[in-house]
Design a protein that fits this description.
The protein is α+β, with helices and mostly antiparallel strands. The chain has one domain. The chain contains 5 helices and 6 strands. It has a 4-stranded antiparallel beta sheet with strand order 3-6-4-5. Strands 1-2 form a two-stranded antiparallel sheet. A hairpin with a 2-residue loop joins strand 1 and strand 2. Helix 3 crosses helix 4.
Amino acid sequence: MTNYILDNYDLSDLFDTNKKSISFSEDPRKHIPEFGSMIYTVWDNNEKFIYVGISGIGQSPNTPLLKRNPRSRIKQHQSGRRSGDQFCVYVHDYFVIPELLKSNSYQPSRGYLDRLTKEYIQKKLRYRFLCFQTEDSVRTVRNLENKIKSGIFDLKPFLNGEE
């Protein structure tokens, strides 16, 4: 079993595929605390590491702990709306468009591509997370995210790993 310790934090909950992941179709309020900062990893149904992200970082570095909403980013991803959400853009570009090309089934209509992106995310992707409820949680999750993007555990996220 791989050791997922980084900066004295046990990140097993993010990477251990024997631990339960959460479908994007589920209500995040059932799993994620109301406040704090969160780091999360996204996996496809075959346990391929797709993405690492953070949430609950507030509007500024000085956002009070109780005002940091870790659920907000997951809810945004669940919507499938590409406007303002880089994760949804990546999913659309790397997964939804190729499926459309393969099936030759594009039907232009308002909201159609966002709807397909939402369906893909909710049916085929899952996440694992860790929440930090400390005053320095924003700095903690940003630091961990950058190290994970670089492939610290010989795992790089497919969509946003650093080259």
